Amino acid sequence: MAKNENGKADIVPAESVVTGTGVVAPDAFTDPGLPPHRPRVTDLDPKAAKRAERVVYTLFYLSIAASVFAVYAYMFFPIEPENVHSVRMNTLYLGLGIAFSLLAIGIAAVHWGKALMADKEAIDHRHPVRGTDETRARAVEIFRESDEESGFSRRTLIRNGLIGALIAFPLPAIALFRGLAPMDVDPNNELKHTMWKKGLRLTRDPQGTPIKASELTIGSAFQVIPEGLVDLPEHEKLDAKAKAAVLLVRLKKEDLHWSSKERESWSYEGIVAYSKICTHVGCPVALYEQQTHHLLCPCHQSQFDISNECAVIFGPAARPLPQLPITVDSEGYLVAMSDFTEPVGPSFWERAN
Amino acid sequence: MSTVSAPAQSGVVGKFSNYLDERTSISGAVKEFGRKVFPDHWSFLLGEVALYSFVIILLSGSFLTFFFQASMTPVLYEGSYVPLKGIEMSAAMSSTLDISFDIRGGLLMRQVHHWAALLFVASIGLHMLRVFFTGAFRKPRELNWSIGFVLFVLAMAEGFTGYSLPDDLLSGNGLRIIDGMVLGLPVIGTWITFLLFGGEFPGADIVGRLYSLHILLLPAFVLIFIVLHLMFVIIHKHTQYPGPGKTEENVVGFPILPVYAAKAGGFFFLVFGVVALMAATVTINPIWNYGPYDPSPVSAGTQPDWYIGFADGALRLIPPHLETYWFGYTWSWNIIIPVLILLVFLAAAFAYPFVEAWVTGDKREHHLLDRPRNAPVRTAIGAAGVTFYAVLWAAASSDLIATHFKVTMEGVINTLQILLIVGPIIAFIVTKRIALALQKKDREILLHGFETGRIVRLPGGEFTEVHQQLDAYDRWQLVSYNDNAPIMLRPNPQGKITGGMRMRASLSRFFFEDRIAPVTQEEYKQALEHAHH
Amino acid sequence: MIFMRKNMSATQASRRNGRRGPLASVALILIGLVATGGAYAAFSSASATAAVDLSSPAVINQGQKLFAANCSTCHGQQAQGTENGPSLIGVGSAAVDFQVGTGRMPMQMSGPQALSKPVQFTDEQTQALAAYVASLAPGPAIPSQSQLENGDVAAGGELFRINCAMCHNVAGAGGALTEGKFAPQLTHVSAVHVYEAMLTGPQNMPVFNDLNLTPEEKKDIISYLSYIESNPSAGGLELSNLGPVSEGLFLWVFGLGAIVALTVWITAKSN
Asked: Which of A44, A69, A88, A112 has the most C C-beta neighbours within 10 Å, making it the best mutation to test the interface with C?
């Protein structure tokens, strides 16, 4: 075994190539050269060659048949309206026809190449990737000549002007991208407010019907949107819903633990409403376990404890889900006392100010 | 003189060839490339799989563009799929449903497109692993590794933008996660998402914008980089595995015409055939189950396509409560840390060839590949990287692992958190030991022959197994590999030892300390003599 | 399977085996090649309801005896509840039919959640138990057959995605909950049990009372579930409807597996 201590001594530098840490032993084995060529069955046995030939052309003809079958399938397995099964059959038979026609061509061509075409190994010679010294010298010369002829390094004012201009000219293009978002809207402001406001009723998603406190039994979970969301113009609806979606649940009052009297006043008879938008990266947190009172986000497994003001108990989220302060109006419907008191959803840079 | 009356001008083919050559000088290309030799090994075809899947993606994708409407304008779905009739959705979703349920072969093409996309990224990954573990990235191919790496990233971007186009519930939640991730980035996050989505999430622009990227900008870049990548393959000629008759100065294999034209050409049809077979029989991305995007619902088991899994996994493995308020701003460490981890991981993969080149200081061209065992530390680093990636990947399906193996999701996540740190270290140590052990075994076989299983009784009554020496070809297979020794620290011409030199020396020790050198003729002779005594 | 299902009776259809192996699936497709078309048995509930009169004293009496013998250890002699099991007063016949009818009760052992297992009682005994518990205090009742059929599939789908999919997955394939609990798969669950589960909120499932989801809406949801169960995916094998993870695994194992096998064949020397 070669030892480290004599490792350095082994190095035999090639004439002009630096081998670095590479070690070439002076009495290394030498290459015995290519092993003798081994003929194939199809080279020795004309019958086998004939057989291979038959396989190849048969496959090509089968491919034609499969292509024709695919066209046939297109026509005779049509899609019937409202019939999922017809779509399945159309996809299946058309696909199988195409797949078999392709596979048959592939197998035939490869088999042809392997079994019938000459299989004598060929050898190409490599040349170093770098250009020859002569070529490189000429390249250097060309650059020098053109530098002289243009005065690129001599006329420094021109050169620096060119470089400056080339740096400056894309700037307008960057500015143009500001137009990707509306000009008169500040994202910070948008992210900090939702549709909720004092007196707005809590309504069912997607129907938009208001909810009475008495309709919630212990253990119920309602998916909630603000009143009026369904009547918003189309393009505003999803944007508003992406911030205002709320989960409404009812627990036994003694199961809810509050940090302050004020927080407790945000609930009504054990009914609490929390933002559904995860404080991690914004997936809807809607998996409610009515006995453990845990909320789980299906995207990244953050867990929140409803009985404890939605504190994070597991997973990547950093902050509790914001609570929507609620009460009931004179008709017994649940209404918001205000907007959320903090921005909902994922954290962002300017969130705190 | 004889240029005008070149041979083989008779007949239609001859006349046509002449016509073409007189206008394109194509005969030069045929002469140059027609008999170019390509070495034969299964692992050399993995890059071709990637290329072919890209062609399949282009073909099926073009078909889809004829029907798809990249618009978030709300419409009422009136197509054939009963459970979504009358439901409000974007034109993008509605047209994707029409492709699936109202256009013959439309669903097939969607599935061809999506399966081929998964295959595209997977085959690039496998190809990169082959290149890494065989050391094919060494001089002169470092830049081609970089180009290939860019292609890998572009392929993931293509995949993600495509995944988001149908505007279904799954892809919408995927975009929601991207939105949340970008929001968490310091300083620029808020404005980047605002510009990306054209206002607030989800807005009405993102599908159209991703569509431009998906069908125009990204494919153009992919195409440019593929051309560059292949150009370098031609300039460098393909690498080959070491073996008798194969040297740094030659390429042994089969010529493009006719053998490789048949094999590689046939292989295109085989890859396309396999994709078509999958598309015909196995559902992929059933958007009709997910329904249109709506910010309120979500499905259990919401995951990205496999190649984004490692990023999703990184998001899942962060422990709770990592966020601070500093200087009046919010620092979302639960976003920043995973993003940094991913960037560092990708940067390490990108930079590896340059690091190894610096450590070895080797300026020779390497066209003969390493067997993974003959570069134990590189192989071990690769195994550690694969393990790290695999743990992140597994983390992206933590919930499914929990339900399918009947364990708790908390247990799965906590285990993976530990494995993310410990796993690569274990993988490194184990792989390095295995590689060294295999090298020792090779050496043993070379010096003492292989066991024949024949037991002979010696005149003295002693039993012994006959060992047989290898023939010259098999012996060459075992001794012809690159050997590296650690650098000795020596002062430079100014008589100084710089920090860079120290670092390089310690890295080179890390790489080559436990080296096992190839057997020399002298050692072999001694072993033979020893055996005869 | 495709043509076999023509002959299946309605009751058999709902007991159809869940997951098939991938090879079996390939075989299925080959069979599908031969059998063009194929009618699908209409979905229908396996345990059609109330052939027994739940208000008859004899039935209640029988239920009480069964209860005392099988349930009272945990739920108490008067169903008032003990440390080991909740009170059943006021849970109604629907809860009993669900818990006992799916084999969740009697519970084998305490664990993160009661698992469904082979049913321990005959339909008649289950009905009797339900009658007894219902007689203790009014509570949600077992729905009638007419409450389970012919709902609006599209409306049901939307409600399902909003109220159910986050735990049970959009295709009803089930999903993970915290601490080893899980939301079960909904395919192969009879309509009446789905209805009862919504109504009573068994274990950690929230309650969807009739004021949250009206009986009409519950019917829509059930109709949606039966639609997706009786109309297998248009695209072919469903890979258990687990989404991108199962698709990715399929691609790596079968897709790339097949292609790597082909590369080996292409470059192997022909003999």
From this structure: A88
Mutate to test the interface with C, among A296, A303, A304 (most CBs of C within 10 A): A296
What's the structural domain count of chain C? 4
Chain B residues touching A347 at Cβ < 8 A: 183-184, 323, 330, 332, 335
Q: Which CATH architecture has domain A194-336?
A: 3-layer Sandwich (2.102)
Per-residue pLDDT of chain A (353 residues; tens, 9 = 90+): 333 333 343 344 444 567 788 888 888 899 999 999 989 999 999 999 999 999 999 999 999 999 999 999 999 999 999 999 999 999 999 999 999 999 999 999 999 999 999 988 899 999 999 999 999 999 999 999 999 999 999 999 999 999 999 999 999 999 999 999 999 989 999 999 999 999 999 999 999 999 999 999 999 999 999 999 999 998 889 999 999 999 999 999 999 999 999 999 999 999 999 999 999 999 999 899 999 999 999 999 999 999 999 999 999 999 999 999 999 999 999 999 999 999 999 999 999 87
B323 is in which domain, residue-wise?
Answer: 34-291+301-370
C207: in domain: yes
Same domain flag for B145 and B21: no
Q: Could you tell me the residue ranges of all domains in chain A?
A: 41-116, 135-166, 194-336
The count of CB pairs under 8 A between chains A and B is: 412
**The whole model's pTM is what?**
0.92
Flag if C178 and A303 touch (Cβ within 8 Å).
yes
Integer-rounded Cα radius of gyration of chain B? 29
Q: How far apart are CA B419 and CA B394, in angstroms?
A: 11
Chain B: partners with 3+ C-beta pairs within 8 Å:
A, C
Q: Which chain C residue shows the shortest CA-CA distance from B295?
A: C162
Q: Give the whole-angstrom CA distance, residue A91 versus residue B114.
A: 14
Residues in chain C: 271
From residue C230, how far is each of A206, C186, C211, C222, C233 by CA, in Å?
26, 13, 29, 12, 10
Residue B68 carries which DSSP code? -
Token digits of residue C58: 């004899």
Chain centroid offset of residue A200 CA: 38
Residue B9 resides in a domain: yes
Residues of A in contact with B302 (CB under 8 A): 283, 298-299
Q: What confidence tens digit (pLDDT) does each residue in B378-430 have?
A: 999 999 999 999 999 999 999 999 999 999 999 999 999 999 999 999 999 99
Please name the helix (run of DSSP H) or strand (run of DSSP E) that holds residue A327, with its range, or none: strand A326-328
Distance between CA atoms of residues C7 and B519, nearest Å? 72
Nearest to C170 among B46, B283, B291 (CB): B291
> How many C-beta neighbours within 10 Å does residue C121 have?
17
Contact B184 A348 (CB under 8 A): yes
User: Is the CB of residue B298 less than 8 Å from the CB of residue A280?
Assistant: no
C159 vs A contacts (CB less than 8 Å): 206
Domain-located, residue B130: yes
Give B527 to chain A, closest Cα distance, Å. Answer: 12
B310, B341, B370 — which closes off a domain? B370
Q: Residue B524 CB: number of other CB atoms within 10 A?
A: 17
Distance, CA of B293 to CA of B88 (rounded, Å): 10
B76 is a domain residue: yes
Exposure b/e, C25-58, CB count within 10 A at least 16 = b: bbebbeebeeeeebebbebbbbbbbbebebeeee
**Are B105 and B187 found together in one domain?**
yes
In single-letter form, the type of residue at position B335 comes to: I
ipTM over 0.85: yes
Q: Name the residue range of residue C5's domain.
A: 1-42
Could you tell me which chain C residue has the CA closest to the CA of A84?
Answer: C234
CB under 8 Å, gap of 24 or more: what pairs does B318-322 form? B318/A316, B319/A316, B319/B417, B320/A302, B320/A312, B320/A313, B320/A314, B320/A315, B320/A316, B320/A317, B320/A318, B321/A312, B321/A318, B322/A316, B322/A318
